[in-house]
Amino acid sequence: MKRFARLNTLSVLLLAASLATGVAHAQLAPSASAAPTQAGAPSEARKANIVIIGTGGTIAGAGAAATNTAAYQSAVVPVDKIIASVPEIAKIANVKGEQVFQIGSESFNNERLLKLGKRVSELLRQPDVDGIVITHGTDTIEETAYFLNLTLKSDKPVVVVGSMRPGTALGADGALNLYDAVLVASSPESRGKGTLAVLNDEIHTGRDVTKTNTFKVETFRSPFGPLGYVVEGRTLYFRLPARPHTMQTEWDIDKLDKLPEVAVVYAYGNVNPASVDAAVKNGAKAIVYAATGNGSVGDYMVEPLKAARAKGVQIVRASRTGGGVVIRNAEQPDDKYDWLVTDDQLPQKARILMALALTKTNDTKELQKILWKY
Ligand code: GLU
């Protein structure tokens, strides 16, 4: 792998010009001479070494015209080109790019998740690496962030970042998001806060962050608010993650070689019980039932779910509402059926947590404790 090189602004600009990526962005970064020195802003004296891992997504996307803000091809621009298109980054950190995938994030699966996590872990072990930024499609960024938050064994900052508009679009958000992500990954204040997601001037914990809109740049939300902001080259934290992460969890990415199959079955009026049977037939070890409301289960769905449990498949009641906790033994007698409930995890996040939990135990009491803990 390339060694860290101090990128000189002129060479980066020349490189950017010669690459002719067509990626444009506003000059929003403070100049080196005006770089702030308050807490949260890296100074010249302590420029961090940051590896930027490229995995694809819209931040690596390109559209046919500048007015294509929502219709374009994702995962086409190599990570080194993306980095070269934001020369301001060289003023705040020593960066090097590494392309791990070039995919839309909807194509992440367990194998790719494990591969990414193991590479991140390997890099974090290198003494000359201070932090990692992962460019990622926004569709499943929340799943990757939660997974890394639960499995990485390091206090060094790891930041996932994406964009809602390709670099070719009017009002492209990727350049500033990437700059901000490097800033956050370089900040000593970001250490020990778990995997972070940086988009649209906000810093979110990987546990909570979720995509809530198909095209708007303010799509990322955490139900209890972001941890902080990035503004004018400064990282400003206001909250801390309350749930255990990274060093405090029972999982270690280096020791994970396979994740058990966990299916999500989405509930709706007239949901077909065959979807439960299909999950069981496909080898699911657990079914996260994205139920209505407070985890309510239609009368005709109770028996199929009980039958799946009788075959050894764990049943987790979650909610499709997008918020709130699912109350144990409220809508359904979980104790009697030996079912589980999520805490406030969205179904797709509960899927990640259950897969990890099942690598430790198949005991429902223990599994419930894990669902309530993380
Ligand atoms: N579907 C693509 C992905 O998640 C593009 C969406 C995006 O990155 O915003 O990678």
TrEMBL record:
Molecular function (Gene Ontology), one example: asparaginase activity
Protein family (similarity comment): Belongs to the asparaginase 1 family.
InterPro entries: AsnASE_II, Asp/glu_Ase-like_sf, Asparaginase/glutaminase-like, Asparaginase/glutaminase_AS1, Asparaginase/glutaminase_AS2, Asparaginase_C, L-asparaginase_C, L-asparaginase_N
Asparaginase/glutaminase C-terminal domain sequence ranges: 262-370
Active site per the UniProt annotation: 58, 138
Record lineage: Bacteria, Pseudomonadati, Pseudomonadota, Betaproteobacteria, Burkholderiales
Keywords per UniProt: Hydrolase, Signal
One example of a Gene Ontology biological process annotation: asparagine metabolic process
Annotated coiled-coil segments of the chain: none
Transferase listed as a keyword: no
Magnesium found in the keyword field: no
L-asparaginase N-terminal domain location: 49-237
Name of protein: Type II L-asparaginase
Segment forming the signal sequence: 1-26
Binding positions (substrate): 105, 138-139
